[in-house]
Specification:
Elements: E1 5-7, E2 12-16, E3 19-22, H1 23-46, H2 52-76, H3 78-83, H4 98-116, H5 120-144, E4 159-161, H6 173-194, H7 203-219, H8 237-258, H9 266-274
Parallel strand pairs: 1-4
Antiparallel strand pairs: 2-3
Helix pairs in contact: 1-2, 1-5, 2-4, 4-5, 5-6, 5-7, 6-7, 7-8
Length: 275
């Protein structure tokens, strides 16, 4: 009986001429689609105005992709990409960072909230529920690509990544993160439903930051360095980048109890007056 799981999945689902459909791309598409479906429930429940979600989706897609790409280029390989700036545009060659995606999403949500004239924190509290779900699918895409995995392990659920010519089983850190993010999604969604949408301002966002980046911080201990310079660091880049997000999460949880205001969308107010 094998004491590990052989992993030799072809990252391509099928190919039509030069066009290849890959699991990684499918997981990204699922992340945005399911995020849209979940957020649409919030829209209907809270009476948000027509077009709110479609506009939000555009901002989210652009912010996520640009942030994730710039995050990888500037956090992990700044010398190369600052010397070859046009290479940043070659996103199809790979190289996306979740911390960069988080920053890109926050910038996009700031711009979106400003245009829609709603408090940014109101939007963020709901968006992060879908982000947790999307993050889980993206990590499954990393698994299908046989990338971003952990160090050697003797545990029976270790994965032997055959395509990368690995000789020993490694921690499937993609699965660790995916399972953590699914759990965070269900916890946050359950809380939202239990509160009937009337949540303390900033609470969901704060809990999301604490749980997700604490999980990321801990999992990094069994993850292989992504770049050479991380080998000499006591804490790797992913862990250092997680710390400010965790601290921000603590701040927003405290803030939600100090100033527990609840924003009611304008359209819902109008509907109530019309009854």
């Amino acid at each position: 009986m094998l004491a590990y799981i052989p992993w030799n999945v072809d990252p391509e689902i099928f190919r039509v001429g030069p066009l290849a459909v890959r699991y990684y791309g499918l997981m990204w598409a699922l992340a945005f689609y399911l995020g849209y479906v979940v957020f649409n429930k919030f829209v209907k429940k809270e009476g948000l105005k027509e077009g709110f979600l479609d506009s939000l989706t555009v901002y989210m897609v652009v912010g996520t992709v640009i942030g994730a790409r710039l995050g990888h280029c500037l956090f992990y390989e700044p010398e190369y990409y600052l010397s070859h700036p046009l290479e940043i545009l070659k996103i199809w060659q790979g190289g996306l960072a979740s911390h960069g995606a988080a920053i890109g999403i926050l910038v996009a949500l700031y711009l979106f909230a400003r245009k829609q004239k709603v408090p940014m924190i109101y939007v963020v509290d709901r968006v992060v529920i879908t982000v947790a779900l999307g993050g889980a699918f993206i990590r499954l895409g990393n698994l299908m690509n046989s990338e971003i995995y952990g160090v050697q392990t003797s545990l029976p659920w270790g994965f032997l990544f055959v395509k990368n010519n690995e000789l020993f089983p490694k921690h499937p850190t993609q699965l660790y993160e995916a399972l953590s993010y699914f759990l965070i999604f269900f916890l946050l969604y359950f809380y939202y439903r239990k509160q009937d949408g009337k949540t303390r301002t900033g609470f969901i966002f704060g809990v999301f930051l604490i749980l997700l980046f604490t999980a990321r911080f801990l999992i990094e201990y069994v993850k292989e360095p992504q770049v050479e310079f991380e080998k000499a660091m006591a804490l790797n880049m992913g862990q250092w980048l997680s710390v400010p997000f965790i601290l921000a999460g603590v701040f927003f949880v405290v803030y939600s109890y100090i100033k527990p205001n609840i924003f009611i969308p304008v359209q819902e107010k109008i509907n109530k007056k019309g009854k």
